């Protein structure tokens, strides 16, 4: 094997490793946001139980709140209050 082919193979291996690391980093961030969203919805359901507003905790609502934060909680609360 010549030097060019070895360099090409090594760069592909390094690129693959970096891609995998970025993928796991992205999955970790999404998982953390999912957990934070579920906890925020749980706390919201405890506090807003007196008002009669209940937002179910599932994958969609947890990700929605985890990714959008406070505006996501407000949007889901308004949706639940006015639409459902």
TrEMBL record:
Q: Quick check: keyword Transcription in the entry?
A: no
Which InterPro entries did the record assign? BofA
Which domain of life does this protein belong to? Bacteria
Instruction: Enumerate the transmembrane spans.
Output: 6-23, 35-57, 63-83
Cross-referenced Pfam families:
BofA (PF07441)
Q: Which UniProt keywords apply?
A: Membrane, Transmembrane, Transmembrane helix
Residue stretches in coiled coil: none
The name on file for this protein is Inhibitor of the pro-sigma K processing machinery
Q: Which organism is it from?
A: Pelagirhabdus alkalitolerans
């Amino acid at each position: 094997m010549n030097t060019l082919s070895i360099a090409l193979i090594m760069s592909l291996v390094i690129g693959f490793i970096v891609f995998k690391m970025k993928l796991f980093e992205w999955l970790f961030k999404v998982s953390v946001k999912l957990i934070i969203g579920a906890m925020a919805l749980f706390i919201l359901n405890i506090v807003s139980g007196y008002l009669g507003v209940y937002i179910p905790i599932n994958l969609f609502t947890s990700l929605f709140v985890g990714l959008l934060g406070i505006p996501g909680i407000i949007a889901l609360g308004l949706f639940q209050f006015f639409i459902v």
